[in-house]
Design brief:
The complex is a heterodimer of chains A (99) and B (212). Chain A contains four helices and three strands. Chain A has 99 residues and is an alpha+beta fold. In chain A, strands 1-3-2 form a three-stranded antiparallel sheet. The longest helix of chain A is centred in the last third of the chain and has 21 residues, at 78-98. Chain A is elongated. Chain B has helices at residues 7-22, 29-52, 59-62, 70-101, 109-134, 141-156, 163-179, 185-209. The chains are: A alpha+beta (99), B mainly alpha (212).
């Protein structure tokens, strides 16, 4: 068999990270609770993966306010969107190779 | 099966997440059916009311010279408001019920975005129709409500189930046809707001909700 994971992005090996990016590429800005509810993951789990993606510069954290409450939202960076698309391409390629 | 690195599973999940996070998916087909029933009932009631007053169906459309009785305008407006209230109320009820059943939140980013995008063309159309009434162009009101409602659905369809797009296009086409058959406003209105809603709502119920 061909080298399976060639071209697969290490940052997306974890499904939660891939899921976070899937949500961010189709939405302008998403807050923590919306992400948590969409992905059905725990606070701690989500927070650690967000930090990992932030370190990879795939997403940006934006702090704002709704009234007096802080409202933190996450936005996919240009690099993040590119990495996500490349990852999808390699997934596609992988499936084509099977056929 | 290895759950961690199966590309097909990954792609399936990505697709579902993109859709779930950007579109309001729990729109119920029954909402369409109930709105349609309200629309049809209102059309029949209006027909009955006009004939009781000794007026023909095309009275409203053909009275272009602002001589229409004030009382008739007020009563028709009242029927319209009650219909709107019942249709929106029952449609909201069925969609809320579906949202609660599927464990979603009714008032989240996706439903807000859907509302805003439907309301903008709809309110524009509402003001436009009020201006038509103000100028005494009663015959153009029914076709215009259909056209603007269709445009509103078309605009909102990007943020919910794709079937809404076809309902929107159908309403626009019907509205445009009725622009050239002034005098049959009530019939076209019953067809658009009544029959089309019931047909599309029923089809959507059959497609998405039947099992649930």
């Amino acid at each position: 068999m061909k080298p399976l994971l060639e071209g697969f992005n290490k940052a997306f090996e974890n499904r939660t990270r891939l899921a976070i990016m899937s949500v961010l590429v189709v939405n302008n800005a998403v807050d923590f609770n919306t992400l948590k509810e969409t992905l059905q993951v725990t606070d701690g789990n989500l927070a650690s993966h967000i930090t990992a993606l932030e370190k990879a510069k795939y997403l940006e954290v934006r702090k704002g306010f709704i009234g007096r409450k802080t409202n933190t939202t996450y936005v996919a960076t240009r690099e993040g969107i590119k990495a996500f698309k490349d990852h999808l391409d390699s997934l596609e390629q992988f499936i084509k190779d099977i056929d | 099966m290895n759950n961690e690195a199966s590309p097909i599973n990954d792609l399936k999940e990505i697709r579902s997440l993109m859709e779930r996070s950007s579109r309001f998916m729990s729109l119920s087909g029954l909402s369409g059916v109930s709105a349609g029933v309200c629309g049809l009932a209102a059309a029949f009631f209006t027909h009955w009311y006009l004939s009781r007053e000794g007026l023909r169906d095309d009275y409203v459309s053909n009275t272009l010279d602002k001589t229409m009785e004030y009382k008739v305008i007020v009563n028709l407006f009242f029927i319209g408001v009650v219909t709107l209230f019942l249709a929106v109320g029952s449609a909201t009820y069925f969609t809320l019920r579906k949202t609660v059943r599927t464990g979603g939140r009714a008032w989240d980013t996706t439903s807000k975005r859907l509302m805003v995008n439907i309301l903008m063309p709809l309110i524009t159309g509402g003001i436009y129709c009020m201006a038509l009434i103000y100028h005494g162009e009663y015959g153009l009101v029914a076709p215009s409500t259909l056209v603007f409602y269709g445009l509103a659905l078309l605009n909102g369809s990007k943020y919910t189930l794709n079937d809404i797009r076809y309902l929107g296009v159908s309403q626009i086409v019907l509205g445009i046809i009725s622009l050239f058959y002034i005098g049959y406003g009530l019939e076209f209105w019953a067809l658009g707001f009544g029959v089309l809603h019931i047909v599309y709502g029923g089809a959507m119920w059959y497609k998405y909700d039947r099992k649930g």
